[in-house]
Amino acid sequence: MRYAFLIIIGLHALIHLLGFVKGFQVFDLKDFPLQISKSTGLIWLGAFFILAVTIVFYLIRHPFWWLFGFAGLILSQILIIGQWTDAKFGSIPNIILFLIVIIAFSKFEFERKADGEIKSILNASKPVKPIEEKNLDGLPKAVQRWLKFSGVIGKPGIENLYMEQSYKIKLKPEQENWYHAKASQTSTSDPPAFVWTVDMQMMPLVFTYGRDRFIQGEGEMLIKLLSFLPVAKDGPNPKINESALQRYIGELVWYPSACTLDHFKWREIDENTAEATMSYLQTEGSGIFEFDEEGKLIRFTAMRYMGSGEDAVKMEWFVQVLAHREFDGIILPSQCTATWRLESGDWTWAEFEVDKVIFNFHQ
Fold first, then answer.
1. For residues 93 and 68, what is the distance between their CA atoms, to the nearest angstrom?
2. Residue 311: how many CB atoms within 10 A of its CB?
3. Rounded distance, CA 331 to CA 184, Å?
4. pLDDT tens-place string over residues 43-92
5. Bridge pairing between strands 297-305 and 283-291
6. Is residue 16 exposed (0-12), middle (13-18) or buried (19+ Cβ within 10 Å)?
7. Strand, helix or coil at 142?
8. For residue range 256-284, what is the model confidence (pLDDT) as tens digits?
9. Cross-strand partners of 187
10. Residue 234 to residues 6, 17, 96, 107, 222: CA-CA distances in angstroms?
11. How far is CA 63 from CA 1, 111, 119, in A?
């Protein structure tokens, strides 16, 4: 699609250059039917340059390429209307350009709002003290082993982190093929918050953009087709708030410095299992961590609401850890699956891998 779009707009731009050539009679264009004066020819040249800049900025993925595209198509369409009889078919590439510009602008706005949310949680973030050996007293034995295994003991406290992930997603239990997606997440330890965005290709030429967040004790999920057609929006409400908080608990293994903060309470179940309960503002939830003898996380399980409608009930939701990897001296779960345990059977809706982690960054 990308190269087809460039070819169409490139040819469209060249036709506008011919309008300039015709107006100034640089060459004898007998087969070019439009009657163009020199003054109008300069406008055709301007349209060519704007469309050319659009192509260049699109190629280098400049965030504001769509501004030039919109200006170019408006100027082009005005010229076409002035020569409608002979130039009307030039409206077709302008329509294509208009649709792509609308999608690009909507994506820009979607990302701008998400960036604003990320900036707000980073600005509110407070320093987190390092975990020392003395801080392990009173924690479940399995949690102590995990913290030692992770390598976080004595390291600077993790105030925030930025993460990039590769996903395979199934939106329905009966779905056979995976959708591929790229996601990024920013999380803070105190106050607890995250903003997660995903770019998922559902089929050729069809992309879905989503954002999940937990800020000030409230959760919200938003999904848009082609970045401007709302597909789903849920929260904030008590069920979504609790579900988002439980997601935050499960991801505690990515920012282990937070596990000794006041809003977490730990309960030992056995030597390899511990329950974490988190209370923050008006929202509370819990989940169970299972570790091996070395301290590696094996699984996180929670009873989460599946949706937030009147009929929504809590279902078992678990994350299975498949691999660990070291990031900047700290060992984190790096490959996982996420599964709902339904009455009809297990539905593994996501498989993902952590590609990049940055601790304590500033936007």
1. 15
2. 6
3. 19
4. 999 999 999 999 999 999 999 999 999 999 999 999 999 988 888 999 99
5. antiparallel
6. buried
7. helix
8. 999 999 999 999 999 999 999 999 999 99
9. 161, 194
10. 37, 49, 32, 20, 7
11. 18, 10, 18
**Residue 117 in contact with residue 213, Cβ under 8 Å?**
yes
Using alpha carbons, list the distances in angstroms from residue 36 to 29, 41, 83, 165, 252. Answer: 12, 6, 9, 54, 67
DSSP calls for 36-70? --HHHHHHHHHHHHHHHHHHHHHHTT-TTHHHHHH
Distance CA(330)–CA(354), nearest Å, equals 13
Cβ-contact 359, 163 below 8 angstroms: no
Whose tokens are 């600077």? That residue is: 156
Q: Which two tokens mark 269?
A: 């179940």
C-alpha to C-alpha distances, 333 to 146, 170, 196, nearest whole angstrom: 11, 21, 17
Identify which of 317, 316, 268 has the alpha carbon closest to the alpha carbon of residue 291: 268
Tokens 């959760």 sit at which residue? 219
- Please report, as a single letter, which amino acid is at residue 192: P
> Whole-prediction pTM value?
0.88
Question: Which residue in 331, 322, 321 sits closest to 150, CA to CA?
Answer: 331
Q: How many CB atoms lie within 10 A of CB 229?
A: 11
